Amino acid sequence: MRIIFLFLALLVNVNAKLTVAVSYPYIASLTQSIGGDNVRVETLAQGNWDPHFVIPRPSLITKVRDADLLITNGADLEIGWLPPLLNRAANERLNQKSNLLELSKKVTLIDVPSDISRAGGDVHSEGNPHFHLDPRNIPLLADAVTIFLSQKDPSHATQYRQNLTLFKQQWSIHLKRWENQMAALRGEEIIQYHPVFNYFLRTYGLKTIGTIEPLAGIPPSSAHTMKLITLMKEKKPYMIMHDVYHPTKTGEFIADKSGVKLVLLPHDVGATSRADNLVSLFDTLIQAMR
């Protein structure tokens, strides 16, 4: 009888899914692509939320408390909301560094500030944290997730590697398609509300010449807004790229006065209804810009 119980316990353990909490929807999409049926992914933030600010609701505390593993964006993007959530969840498994994966450590960050004082606004000391919007970074992140899951769940490592191979094959096809679609916009000048799209613009050779925020995280002032309108009338940028989580009132005013179109764009999976996975995130971005 004891042998039967041991066999059943082993069977349950082998068939048990890893519960992986992730900070943002793009990480959930990537983790599900690699983990497949062997993981249960719990997403903490929603795609249309400001990624810098997430309220630690009871449902999120439960997700963190029940998680075996945690995958985060890093580069201080979660610094304002994730540490309190971890403290309230009191999950001992997530106190072990081996059960944590910080994706920012797997890519090269841009916009690293030389001065991290408040004089520069709400700067991120490690660099711009929105690195997932460079589609060339996604295979690097997929590699990291595959290694992480394989280390924590070696019984399914072969399947994770197979999923990675298929994912990267498909992603390379999309990369070529997106490069072709964006080629005509190379060299265009852009206005943003917040520098969330810098990686995307760098990938395809576009340039930000101004932001609606005078500094990152600082609301637009009347003086800055009028200076920006003057600049736009002179430079005639291609468009105003506006994320979905900042208010559009000032952007719409600037668009009206400058004659430059304003386009609401997704920064993450789920930020708009069409951007429901990683591929459609970039499809939606590119279609809106053309």
TrEMBL record:
Keyword DNA-binding tagged: no
Entry-linked Pfam families: ZnuA
UniProt KW Ligase keyword: no
Top-rank taxon, per record: Bacteria
Keywords for the protein's UniProt record, in alphabetical order: Signal, Transport
GO biological process: cell adhesion; metal ion transport
Gene Ontology molecular function: any one: metal ion binding
UniProt similarity note: Belongs to the bacterial solute-binding protein 9 family.
Name this protein carries in UniProt: Periplasmic solute binding protein
Source species of the chain: Sulfuricurvum kujiense (strain ATCC BAA-921 / DSM 16994 / JCM 11577 / YK-1)
